[in-house]
Amino acid sequence: MGLVQGGHFEKLCENVRKLDEELSEDAEQDAISIRFALDGLDVRNARAANKATLAKVFSMFNGYRLLDVHALVNGAPLVQRPLSVFLVPEEGNTPLNKLWDKMSDWTAVLSNAHENMKVFALRNQRITSDEPNIHLRHLEVLFRIGQISQTSKVLTNVQLAITHLSYICNTNSNSDGPRTRMSDRLPDFPNTLGQLNQLARNSPDQAKSLEYIRDLVAKYRLQGLKLPLEIALSISPLFLFLSLLLPDKRIDPGDLLAESFKIGMKPELLLQVEMKTWKFFFSVLRGETQLLSGLLDLFKTLPWTEIKAADDSVRSWFSSQPQMTSQLQPTASLLDKDPAQAEEDIARQGPHNADQEPPKGKDTDSKDVRRRENDCAPESEESTNSGQKRKRSPKDEGDEEEGEKKEQDSKEGDESNGERRSDEDAERETKKNGDRNEATSSQGENDDDAKERARKERKERKEKERKEKERKEKERREKEKETKGEVKESQGGDGEDAGQLEAITSILDAVQAFYINGKPRYINDPDDSAFRVKSLKQSKHLKPYDLLEIFRRQHLIIPGKAALMRPVYFDLEDLACIAPLDSRISVHDHSIPVQDDNYKARLKTGTLRDVYESAKSKRKILNALNFPQNMAPIKRDYLRTDAAALELTRGQDRDWKPTDKFAIGDFYWDIVGTRGAWHPIHIDADGLATLIAVSCGVKIWIVARPRGRLSDYSDFASPNLFLEGFEFTKACREKWELEAMVLMPGDWFAMRPNTPHAVYTAENAICRGHHFFGIINYARHALRDDPLLFARHSSNQCFSSCLAIHDSTYFESLLARVHLVWRYIPLLGVENQEEDETAIKDIIIVCILAMLLNVLDFRTYRWPGLGDDEELTDKMKEMMRLYDANGIPPYDRAGCTMARTKTIQLLVFLEKKYEVYDEEQEEILLSEFFVEYLFSICRGLRNYRKLADEAEFDGGGKVSLELLDQQLERMFTPGDKLQERWIASRDDGPEGFDFPTGYSFEVRGEEIDISGLLRDEGKINEGDQLWQAFVDGNINMPGTVLFFGLRFN
């Protein structure tokens, strides 16, 4: 950051420079550490703060943003999650606390700068540096407001976005040479980026404009709408991320804009809002528009009418619930408050009160503000429309009438500013009002009469839609109550069910029976235990490879790793941080006896408040397991291949659409249970590993594995394991080896994929957990147990990201460049041959899974839109057979296609690098080994499905042997000799999921050069040739493909 002549802002710039000089010798690494600390903060631990504290946090927030810019200029990676302005740091010596110490005086520094600004302006001095000029305008807006409010945060974020953009543009403003034409969505973007920072004169008095903006902020927040300014800021990470490339590459501004269309699945309306807002940003940077007056004009011209009229899927982007970035899919839509109610609230509170800090002691006190603005899961339709509708009165109708008139005026204002409806909307409106327009023309009504009639018709239409919506909601609730029932009304006795208590006692006795010398196995025989316990200090000193090797065969427990900044209690305040207390949720009532194995009878509807009251009274035992946390941070650790993949591959040229989105709600969740809650032995499906962090209470985690070779999980490789009389509700000591671990607050527990386990809640507990992918576990677990349960949620997209890591590493040499990724990658060609063979097995398993993505996906066997209880018709079956019609959306199919492409690349890579020897030490082609292993797994799938059909296990919806055979055949090109070979051998030959034994892999004496291989885009027939060449052992075939000889649809 450059200095300002005259020294008025020298201290401000000096503080940022000191971050580079004083934190440590390696300032860039310190910046990364600080940002990681900020990224890892749990917003549930934010403390209720007064105005003085908020002022300090606010100054830290701005300091962090400037640090972010500073780090970006030096090439540091981005933080994936924005910092909340309500976070309050604790005492200590963490990087975050060090940053706080250096930022704590920023309020005074900025205030002094504001005072000096007046003198500076009177002297009419020019600033020679463009960047501090941006800060001048930043400081003026920030300190003219004079209070911490919603308005100040919005305006400050606008300024910060402009500041970020100026740095990005200045980074490349001195480049010479011609540029291609900018996209027409920003037609007035300057040819010279340096022109963006022209000096602009400050407006003398804009208090009236500020007042109007403050009123708008209050109005639209009360209506449950997110301000389009906040929406547009979601595109900011895109520009910031691409700025990392600017020092090294010549990126045209048009390319920056084109990249924005690749982020997420944005509706057109959102794109319009983003483009309008960013155009405003650029005009401010060029000095063509004053900030507040331009902001006022922007508010007036945004398409409010279209936003209000949009359907739920589009409106969810504009709801007040925040989202991480625009790279995420929209979460469940909030039902907006009745406009008449919003107007009444504004009238009652006053527009200024609506924007101020809420008074203490009321429903909107600081803890509720913290809950709403930070880590709470979005309310669902089920929870927000609980029947508490107020009765309509004449006053309501009058307010609604007035609101309709305002809406019409706003619509006319939009039209006068160039906001015309699309041709499709206009045609639809013309069709609806055709009769009225004809009558108006014939009777000669004036324009006012026509507008009045249109207003009444619109009002009647909305009233009709409202009543229809209420009717459907009422029917849904009645049906739900009939099927589930209210937890308050559930019968069956109080306290623990006697049968359940007997089952728990039996399993805990079995755990104790497997003790060694009276102590758990993980104490007396840790190498042969299912658990491996490492202290927090030990885990920090373990090498990444050692930690990964532990997780290959043992569950990992690190006490204290999940310790929180403050204690969490099983009370209403902390429960409200998980979800709204009165939202309708699914609750398991364990007080109800199970009859005829009908566990569904325990599933009821209730609220978190019901769970809390049951914990107090001890009358019922309730377990609530479905609290998706859509705003949870994607944290880094050594085990998480998917997080590394997401970070590495997002936004890169090699990436494809499905990997851009990450299903936070599916992978991150909270669970709440009262004392005595018991979840019998089960498996978390989809091939996912599980992380559990206990926030409060006590959990007893019991894991099971087949008896016999305790150091080996090879029994799980049998596709028939769970078809041979295993009992999931009893101890079954003859076949199960059981171990248990008591998890206390702060304990961090990583459970390997597909582990049979049971959970008992010993004390009222709140836990945070998430599922994740770890390539390190694929070779031993991803294909075992019930393989057809592997792919659901967004598993395919996440797995494809993991696959992209291998492609990036081996073909683009990112291993040496990206220091945060190497620990996730199986290293090839290392000195230890055993480690090298383990890495090869991991890659081959990944390739197998990529080939089977369609086969292992439930949606492959479902008709689009068909419910689980509905049967396939003969016509549907015929369509599925002939045209492979199923429930997999097109973008997922494209992801599977790309995954298989990368599979061929990786297999050819291994073929060129390694020699493969069979049990008799004769060299064979890798393709021969791979195909036989693939066939063995496919035979295992068929045999499992055949036996499951005989046992009447549905295996996930409509899966049948006939449909499975169709999908297995579709992996190969019709008529190809490989397909014929599969059909001829599918009923004979070895079957199973375990990696074949007796094979060895050795590095070739002279490695074949693969540079340039598989890099150019090709055609389908070339793909057929490549796959056939691989199968035939012809690995020297040049060229590359995007498609190949396997069926990908």
From TrEMBL:
Regions that span the bilayer: none
Region annotated Disordered, chain positions: 348-498
Source organism of this protein record: Agrocybe chaxingu
Basic and acidic residues compositional bias, start-end: 354-375, 403-438, 450-491
Protein name according to UniProt: JmjC domain-containing protein
Recorded superkingdom: Eukaryota
Upper taxonomic lineage: Eukaryota, Fungi, Dikarya, Basidiomycota, Agaricomycotina
